[in-house]
Amino acid sequence: MMTEASREDVARRIYTPAVDIIKRKDDLEVVADMPGVDEKTLDVMIEKNTLTIYGKVLQEPAENLTLKSSEYGIGDYKRIFTISEEIDRDRIQATVKNGVLRITLPKAEAVKSRKIAVAAAD
After folding, report:
1. What CATH number has the domain bearing residue 39?
2. Of the four, 3, 88, 91, 95, which is 20 to 30 A from 110 by CA?
3. Of residues 60 and 19, which shows the higher confidence score?
4. Can you tell me the distance from the alpha carbon of 95 to that of 12, in angstroms, rounded to the nearest whole number?
5. Which residue would you say has higher pLDDT here, 16 or 120?
6. With the C-alpha atoms ordered 17, 79, 73, 98, is the resulting torsion angle positive or negative?
7. Radius of gyration (Cα) for the chain, nearest Å?
8. Is 78 contained in some domain?
9. Angle, alpha carbons 83-84-89 (nearest 5°)
10. Is 23 helix (H, G, I), strand (E, B) or coil?
11. Is 40 within the bounds of a domain?
């Protein structure tokens, strides 16, 4: 049997948020545009090699107004990434501000590039 809440969830649109992926020396940063999402309505989960982003947009009904036209679609956001073993899963961090999600994916110590000192041979 389906409840009212689950019918509402099924009817919601799911959008794929636009992202930028920035590669830096020690980490990767994923920047996702998710208007209407905040820290209370956002889930960032990692399971094995899968990073899942899900943001729920809460729509507030307008009081005493009748909508004649709408060009902005309300819906939730979902994006799934496959990450490599080079990412240190224990140090992943996520922040959100003004509907912009930033996820920092630190590289594992074993895969960071480093300069190797060269000594003169005897």
Report:
1. 2.60.40.790
2. 95
3. 19
4. 25
5. 16
6. negative
7. 21
8. yes
9. 75
10. strand
11. yes
